[in-house]
Design goal:
This protein is an alpha+beta fold. The protein contains seven helices and 13 strands.
Length: 344
C-alpha cells in the first residue's frame, strides 16, 4: 500500500513568537503558518558593514545561552562544527545563508533550537561587523525568513525580527571575543566575526519560535536501508535531506557513511545497535513524522555519537546507555510510541 504522507516534504503547523514584517502581531505576538503548509526555505539574514570577501560560516549552537550572560569562556565552543550555511562578505549590506535543513531539524524536534553561531575565515586583522538588535537602525536587525506554501495558494514568507531597540525575547543576539573571554557583548549595537589581531570574535543569534509538526508516521531501519539510492527497493527521496551528501554523508566518528552504518550488522556492538535505531528515527523525522515522543533520546544519541566511535571499549554503564536509548527509538520506529507505523 502506498505510504500515507508525501516524501521529502515537511508538513508543519508553525507557531511563531515575535515580530513578523508585514503582518500585524496579535495574541502576545503569536503567529502561525497555516495547517498543512509546507516549509520551502529558511534563510538567515544579517546586515554587514564590510566587504572583505571573507566566507562566514553558520553553525548550529548545541547548548542554551543568555544574551546578557554568555561569554567566550562560559559558551565554551558549544556549537556543531558542521557548517549549516554560509555567505561571503563580497559587498556591504544584507548577507544571507540558507539554513533550511537546520530549521527543519528544529521543526521536527531532531535537535533543540539554541540558535546560530557565525564565524569566519581566520585572516589576521580582518573582521566583519553587523547591525545587532540593539543597534540604531531597526530595519537592519538580524532576521530569519521562513517561506511556506499551502497547497493551491502562492508561497508566503514570514520574517522574525526584533520589533524595536528594546529586548523583546523573540530574538537574542550577542558577540563574544577570545581577547576578553569574560566579556559579554549583549548590549552592543554591533555583532562581529573574524579576528582582531590573533583573537577570534563570534556572533550568536537565536530566534524563538515553535513548530508543531503533523503527526506523520514511522518506518523501521529495514525500510530505510533498502530504499536508498543503492536500492534494491525504490528510492525514498528523504535520504536526500541528510546533509551534506544524503546516504553518503559521514556518520559521526564511525568512519562510515549513514548508508554503510545502517548496513553494518551490530553483532552485539552497542554503537551500531543505536546507529540503526537513530538513523531510522532521524529519517522518519525528516520525512515529517512527529518526533516529540523521542526528542530527548534523539538529542542524547547525538551526544553519544559525538563522543564515542564503534571501536571504543565502552564502560558497562555507557554500553547500557546506548542500548536503552536504542530501545526507545526502536519503539518509536515500530509505531509503539509516537505517531504510529506507516502503512507501506
Amino acid at each position: 500500500m502506498k505510504r500515507l504522507q508525501s516524501i521529502g516534504l515537511l508538513v508543519v503547523v508553525v507557531a511563531l513568537l515575535g515580530s513578523v514584517w508585514g503582518v500585524t502581531a496579535h495574541a502576545a505576538n503569536a503567529l502561525s503558518v497555516p495547517t498543512g503548509a509546507i516549509i520551502n526555505s529558511a534563510t538567515l539574514w544579517v546586515y554587514a558593514y564590510q566587504a572583505g570577501g571573507d566566507t562566514v560560516r553558520v553553525h548550529r549552537v548545541t547548548a542554551p545561552w543568555a544574551e546578557y550572560g554568555v561569554t567566550w569562556n562560559n559558551f565554551n565552543a558549544s556549537y556543531d562544527p558542521a557548517v549549516a550555511g554560509s555567505f561571503v562578505t563580497d559587498a556591504p549590506g544584507w548577507r544571507s545563508a540558507d539554513v533550511t535543513q537546520l530549521v527543519k531539524a528544529w521543526a521536527t524536534g531532531l535537535s533543540p533550537n539554541y540558535g546560530f553561531l557565525l564565524e569566519q575565515d581566520p585572516n589576521p586583522y580582518k573582521s566583519t561587523d553587523y547591525e545587532s538588535s540593539e543597534g540604531a537602525t531597526p530595519a537592519r536587525y538580524p532576521k530569519l525568513e521562513i517561506c511556506y506554501t499551502v497547497p493551491g495558494d502562492p508561497m508566503q514568507c514570514l520574517n522574525i525580527q526584533r520589533p524595536s531597540a528594546m529586548p523583546a525575547g523573540d530574538v537574542m543576539d550577542v558577540y563574544i571575543t577570545e581577547a576578553s573571554p569574560d566579556y559579554n557583548g549583549g548590549a552592543a549595537p554591533y555583532l562581529f566575526t573574524g579576528l582582531v589581531g590573533s583573537y577570534s570574535k563570534q556572533a550568536l543569534i537565536q530566534f524563538s519560535f515553535d513548530f508543531q509538526p503533523s503527526s506523520g508516521c514511522t518506518l523501521t531501519p529495514g525500510y530505510w536501508k533498502t530504499h536508498s539510492k543503492y536500492g534494491p527497493a525504490s528510492y525514498d527521496a528523504t535520504w536526500g535531506l541528510v546533509q551534506p551528501a544524503g546516504e553518503d554523508s559521514p556518520f559521526f566518528l564511525s568512519g562510515k557513511t549513514y548508508y554503510q552504518a545502517l548496513w553494518t550488522a551490530p553483532q552485539g556492538n552497542a554503537y551500531y545497535i543505536l546507529a540503526h535505531a537513530y538513523i531510522a528515527a532521524y529519517l522518519n523525522g525528516l520525512d515529517g513524522a512527529d518526533t516529540s515522543a523521542v526528542t530527548a533520546q534523539l538529542a542524547h544519541a547525538l551526544s553519544l555519537f559525538q563522543t564515542y566511535s564503534p571501536t571504543d571499549t565502552l564502560p558497562k554503564a555507557v554500553r547500557q546507555d546506548f542500548v536503552n536509548t536504542a530501545s526507545v527509538l526502536d519503539q518509536y520506529n515500530n509505531g509503539y510510541i509516537g505517531p504510529g507505523h506507516c502503512a507501506e
